[in-house]
Amino acid sequence: MTTEQLQAANRADLEAWRDFLDLQVPLIMELGRTRMTVRALLELEPGSIIQLSRSTGEGVDVLAGDRCLARGEILMIEDRTGVRINEIIGPEPR
Fold it and tell me: Any idea where the Flagellar motor switch protein FliN-like C-terminal domain is (predicted)?
C-alpha cells in the first residue's frame, strides 16, 4: 500500500469515527500487578517497597476499561511524568 493510500484510509477511518472523536475515555497506565495478603497491606509504612510483576525494561500498558490499547515507556519531561507510546495494539480477532 502506498503512502497516499494509507493516508486516504486514515482519513476514511477518522470520518467514520467523526461523531465519537470528542468522547472522553478514561485511560489507565499500568506499571504492573501483584497480590498481597491483608496482613502485608496493614504492615505497609511510608518508604515500603511493593514488588511488581514487571521489570523496569518492560514498560507500561495503556488500558481503556479492561482492554489494552497500547504499550509504552515511562519518561520524565521537566518535572512531569509521561508515557511514550511505542506500540499500538490492534483489534482482537472475533
Answer: 20-89
